[in-house]
Amino acid sequence: MEARFRGKAALVAGGTGGLGQAVSLGFLKEGASVHVTYRSEAEYARVKDEAGQSAGSLIGHRADATDEKETADLVRKIGAIDIVVNAVGAYAGGTPLWETAVETFDRMMALNLRSGFVLARCAVPILLRQGSGVFINIASRAAMDHAAGAGAYVASKAAALAMMDSLAADLKGTGVRVNTILPGIIDTGANRKAMPDADFAKWPKPEKIAEVILFLSSEASSLIHGAAVPVYGAN
User: E strands within 15-132?
Assistant: First the structure.
């Protein structure tokens, strides 16, 4: 296995979720030390077990990536960071906008938008001082394709995409790169449970999306900055 990230430190917020786990394990397999935020001890234990011989390079932090103080404390604790991936997010839908609860709207904005803002606010200054680094935010196909019944969700993802576009413009010429990933419905256990009648074969696998994220984090993608990369699957 090529060790593209040997000597690098990655922070994967939401690094024990369906996609986050695949990203965390991908970085570990290629030599990085990987810091993950998590809310569930069971999820973190599962990732630690999946990491196998690389488990010693996995460092878990029980932290809320939408909380600025917790995130700032975490970033200071880690110190040097080369790669930040925000895999925090959630979906809520199935109701028209006028029937969507305010609490649902606020939750979508917190998890899908505020998380990226807080992480950027806390981590980008470190990357700037280093004069290098990568920040990758996971948005969604819904940022571009605004389906019915998911107004709060699509608004949060579209705003997250626009925010990263602006951040990329802020960072032009600094040596720090910012890109966004736009997945379709990801083949995770949670999504299968939520949509049992769907055709799972058409959903992109977390591991395949993780490969794209690792590429965008590597030197091979040094010319890619300010991009929104669709990973919808070929079907």
Answer: 33-38, 58-62, 83-86
> Which range of residues forms the domain containing residue 225?
9-231
Helices (H), 131-234: 151-170, 189-194, 206-217
Q: What is the CATH number of the domain that holds 159?
A: 3.40.50.720
Please give the pLDDT value at position 188. 79
Q: State how far the Cα of 219 lies from the Cα of 132, in Å rounded to an integer.
A: 11
| Cα 86 to Cα 73: distance, rounded to the nearest angstrom | 17
Q: Look up tokens 């992480």; give the residue.
A: 119
Q: Which residues are catalytic?
A: 153
Token representation of residue 115: 């998380």
For the record, the structure tokens of 188 come out as: 């995770």
Residue 13's pLDDT is what? 97
Tell which residue, 179, 198, 202, 182, has the closest CA to residue 190: 198
For 226, which DSSP code?
Answer: S
Q: pTM here?
A: 0.94
Residue 154, both tokens: 């699509």
- Asked if the model's pLDDT at residue 234 lies above 70, the reply is no
